[in-house]
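#help-structures
NK: newbie question, is this the right format to request a structure? protein is Transcriptional regulator with XRE-family HTH domain
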Amino acid sequence: MLSDPPEKLSDARLIGLAARTVRRARNMTAQQVATAMNLPLRTYEYFEAGAGRVNLDYVHRFAVATNCDPWSLLLGPSLGSIEFARQTADSKLMLIFLIALGEFVRKMGDRLLTLDPRALIEAFTETFRKLEEENRAKSEETESWLDAGRDRLAGKPPEDEV
């Protein structure tokens, strides 16, 4: 796997590893992504290997080519996760967050100077807790529905009729 612990790898290498994770999750070859990015295969391979400095243009071209969130690629290493980009490729978590943040910044202007850090911590923590709770409830609801459907297909009576 990795020869160096993640904390010793360069940002370019971590972003390249995240890109490889997304590419593989998309079942795309390096050649397919290189072609979609309008790059020679070897140049794409250098990008994915993390050779040189972070190239923001390549990150954004990669995101278009693989339909993923470019900001998750860039910020995942700061969160200590090269998997973050794959995990949020479809939801576009960081892109949505940054768009909403940009709208907030435009509305607030210099009032941003007066924000209480404790209020920010509370607001973000509560929002993420609520998202996690809603996701868990939807997952449980989906599993329950699938279990009941499997039982019906197998000819088992519903539990309330037993």
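mod (FA): yep, format's fine, and the tokens are attached above. The chain has two domains: 6-93, 116-153.
NK: thank you!
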